[in-house]
Amino acid sequence: MLLDRFREAKAEEIALLTDMASRRELPRPWKGRRPDFLKAIAEPPAGQPVAVIAEFKQSSPSRGVIATGLKPEEVAEQYAAAGASCISVLTEERFFGGRIGYLERMHRAGLPLLRKDFIFHQLQVMETASTPASALLLIVRLTPDARTLRILREQAEAYGMHAVVEIFDEADLALARESGARIIQVNARDLDT
After folding, report:
1. Is residue 1's pLDDT more than 70?
2. Which of 12, 24, 112, 170 is deepest in the core (most CB within 10 A)?
3. What's the CA dihedral at 180, 173, 64, 50 to 10 degrees?
4. Which runs of E-coded beta strand occur in 118-182?
């Protein structure tokens, strides 16, 4: 299954974060202002009929390399100038060519940033909190019980971030609702296959 590959790819990252936590070396939470992600998607900019979440992605498993020569900060400025409400930033390295450092580089554009990655561990939420991200992605299929989803969502909220909870089907939706998810997104592709 595709999600198993993504989970395995994160094992090394989580081991590194665990080691850093044991030595009390995890980065501190971001001290700057986080623009409100929920408000940005609920209230489109003046003159815009809908809120647009623009995406920054350098590659993908299905398409391969898309665009590696783009400078994240320049893309963020262009999205802001074009009227985007938020930016979804792929930070997963192995399959999507992302970097968590892109969040720092893109925040100067002033738009809320969504960290789009495979997050299913509390240390990953803490790592995200050390960046200027306004939100993070939680995929129900990676955290398939309502209690874990709730813990991760509440942890994100304690750091001033929102959690975007991704579902695919009605069973995922039931878990998302049970977890108290406030922002739910539907993925049109089945990440199991």
Report:
1. no
2. 112
3. -70
4. 135-139, 162-167
Identify residue 193 by its one-letter amino acid code.
Answer: T
Strands 64-65 and 59-60, sheet pairing = antiparallel
11, amino acid identity = A
What are the b/e assignments for 139-167, b being 16+ CB within 10 Å?
bbbbbeebebbbebbebbeebebbbbbbb
Report which DSSP code applies to 29: P
Model confidence, pTM:
0.93
Residue with tokens 């995929």, as numbered in its chain:
139
Instruction: Give the separation between CA 123 and CA 77, rounded to whole angstroms.
Output: 30
Tokens of 93: 């390295």
3-state secondary structure of 113: strand
d(C-alpha 130, C-alpha 30), whole Å: 5
pLDDT tens digits for 117-142? 999 999 999 999 999 999 999 999 99
Distances (CA, A) of 104 to 30, 88, 139, 188: 10, 13, 23, 29
